[in-house]
Specification:
- The chain has eleven helices and no strands.
- By secondary structure, it is an all-alpha fold.
- The longest helix has 27 residues.
Amino acid sequence: MAPKNKTRERIIEASLALFNAQGERNVTTNHLAAHLGISPGNLYYHFRNKQAIIAELFAQYAERVDMFLRLPQGRAMTVDDKTFYLEALLASMWHYRFLHRDLEHLLESDAELAGHYRKFALHCLESGQRVYQGFVDAGILVMTPAQLEALALNSWIILTSWVRFLCTIRSDANDLSEEHMRRGIYQVLALEQGHLSEQAREAVEALNRKLHVPLERIV
């Protein structure tokens, strides 16, 4: 295995931190180089431009989502799996929140990234439908194939637009907390309320209470 390139890793880590804190559009490669205490030429040796850094961060995000958005092997789904998926989504969205906040701009600025994102989105929709089907097979959700498809799509729309929604209702778009993101995960869970089986209702409603963040704390 080749040794890790520490400078390259530092660039990636610093970029993620600054993009999340200040917004990708407010951070230039010169800002990054100055923050790291390296020359712009050293940065360009590792990444030809800012778009290449963003592409690397998106690849990390996509890989992370793909790793957890899978069915458990050799057993039926449980409500605990629902907790796992939601908490994993929350952690991923928070860790790479700049991608969600600046998504339209990022995709308009980079056709190659837009192509990768389309493939990622379709893959996530397919994986999401398989996960929901797993909950149906386990008797946790009760729904038709059409309802399942709509639930997966509506969940995706909420998850991918939640940060932008927060930015439109908050005076400081950079002042986001994990609690604000948690309410977005709660919104996804709330979509399922009309499809819960009686046997799962009590456990899922307990999860609802755990994830709920009052609206007045996010506006």
